[in-house]
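Feature request, filed as a ticket because there's no other form

It would be nice if the structure record came with a short human-readable summary line next to the tokens. Right now we just get the raw output. Example of a typical job, pasted below so the devs can see what we mean:
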Amino acid sequence: MQYSINKSQLQGTLHCFLFDPSVYISLLASIEGDITIEEMKEAVEKGYSGNETTMSKVLLENGNIYFQNLEKTGCRVFVDERNWQEIMNESEQSVFRIDEGELVRSYIIPTKKGLSLFIMAHHIMGDGKALIMLLEDILCNLSGREAGYRPLNREGTEKFPSNLKLPIPVRMGIKALNAMWKRKGEIFAWEDYYHVHEKFWKDRQSDIQFETIEKEQLDLIKAECKDWGITVNSYVVTKLLRKHPEYENVCCPISRRGENRSISNQVILVRMLCQYDAKKTFEANAKEVHRIIRHRLENNGNKYFIALSLGKMEPTLIDSSLVYAHGGYQNSISKKTAQLIGYAGDNKTHLSVTNLQNVNFETDYGRFRLKNIGFTAACMSATENVACVSTFRDTMTISYSSIKTRKPL
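Raw output as currently delivered:
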């Protein structure tokens, strides 16, 4: 059966993932206990079959994105004894065949005390919360319980507030771009998807660094945040900006998932001008960062600006801007759009900060337990650097992602 995810507000977001070659998210889970590789492999495969999203493939027809059900999942599971970073760098070189249903790859890594599970997914499959839910299902299957079934989220996300409108100059600008594109543009195909990926990763690889903040230090941070009247998220963003005072803007992906428990992408992007001022104290900077973030989130016009703008653009125009940015297409309209979105030129986001907050679900399953968990977020084409923050069992982990020139093989 074929399902369209073709809501006007969503199509633009999905197309931002489709032709972006640097669009992978990942999760690393350390599991201790008496479990075998075959048991884990079976649990992962059941996790795939228990989610309609991972039992579907992506269709691209006349510029629209669809999901079509499969009898057998295209997602794969491997056993590998290498370090997860080596696995990730090799995996990103090999394009995810999402047109055949390969939305996720899972790697079982034997360890001295059990197993590690490294899950790497194409962002069109879902967001960080989706990865957490897939891991939950896998661990539930591993324990011998039934994880249940998650249907594909056909709406994509809840509707945006009905009274929202883009500023008139922005609406007119997008309308003009769309009109020009309809006259001169074209529709892209899977050949373009594969070409862009292969060209991008030919001489590049992801570089991931982790920082861990243990409970004692995290408690001190929380106490300071309470005294200053700010959130831990604002504190972390300020900490990252202090480390890189050259950064002038920040993007924060915001979850709109609510009670939605489907494997899907439920985030919107909120971008803001934000730079660390070395002449002020850390506290003063943190309060200013917090004020800026609150202002963007409390004003729906600011909060939904990027999502609304993408939703008003012709989906194939977004495709063209990505293909242009990665050297696969030449078109003046595509070039202008790529510069506006940030795929090309000087409009890239300097730092994107994803905060998955507290990862709260069952960790002790009797004969095995989830010892640790870490995430990496996609360093997408419009972003230069990405930080992914998660808190698990009173320990905060921050991953830093960037793209660098690949080392010679």
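Something like this underneath would help us a lot:
The two ends are 43 Å apart (CA to CA).
DSSP finds 13 helices and 14 strands in the chain.
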